[in-house]
Write a structure and sequence with these properties.
The chain is α+β, with helices and mostly antiparallel strands and 216 residues long. 30% of the residues lie in helices and 23% in strands. The protein is built from six helices and nine strands. Strands 1, 2, 3, 4, 5, 6, 7, 8 and 9 form a nine-stranded mixed beta sheet that branches.
């Protein structure tokens, strides 16, 4: 896990005193900028997805610990750290990732564009995982070649890279997601399937369910 700390590079021997002074100012600026960023995060985040809470717990972190590791998005502070709808096409969404070989780069690029803690990057046989700010919540995004899981505003969407028969989809409604999908973040939780949508042109099925929110 990468962490953001103060700039600690020391000037080489023989560096003019002016450069040393500039270096000291840079250290102070970096520290002040990061403290301001953490303060903005604390003011912004009002709730967590319970899935996010479980992710942080698995990583041995609480919210305060997560904030220590979250780097600012690439356009901050010119733009606010709040991000738009996490379910829109082009976000952490398989609809825009037809070339599965590019998922790793796309996932990392999406993480860099928002206030994000990148926990794990997708790779062969490995699921990408991050927590990031959406609106006033800290949400989760997971992605692999075969599925994605995103949360926002008390809801979640599980995308599968296959079309489920509508007869099967109708039987899923009202059942707990964890009874259907054996993932540790879903099993044993009272997350109930609300609806099933499909994107036939992309060969995708979307399972939508409520998660609720955890106030902070």
């Amino acid at each position: 896990m990468r962490t953001m700390g103060p700039f600690t590079e020391t000037p080489p021997a023989g560096t003019p005193s002016g450069s040393a002074e500039l270096q000291r100012l840079r250290v102070r600026y970096t520290k002040a900028r990061f403290e301001f960023y953490k303060g903005e995060l604390r003011e912004t985040i009002k709730h967590l997805s319970p899935i996010t809470a479980d992710v942080l717990k698995d990583e041995g972190l609480d919210l305060a610990g997560a904030l220590e590791h979250m780097r600012p998005p690439c356009n901050w502070p010119d733009k606010a750290i709040q991000t738009p709808d996490a379910f829109r096409a082009g976000a952490f969404d398989l609809r825009k990732m037809t070339d599965t070989r590019k998922i790793e780069k796309s996932f990392e690029r999406l993480g860099e564009a928002r206030a994000c803690l990148m926990i794990r990057r997708p790779a062969v046989g490995q699921v990408g995982l991050c927590v990031h700010v959406v609106g006033d919540g800290l949400e989760t995004a997971m992605m692999s070649r075969d599925f994605s899981l995103t949360t926002a505003a008390g809801k979640a969407r599980l995308q599968l890279r296959r079309l489920l028969p509508f007869t099967l989809g109708s039987l899923m409604l009202g059942r707990r997601v964890g009874d259907l999908i054996g993932h540790p973040l879903l099993v044993g939780r009272d997350y109930v399937v609300e609806r099933l949508t499909q994107c036939p042109s992309r060969g995708l099925s979307n399972i939508h369910f409520e998660t609720g929110r955890v106030d902070v």
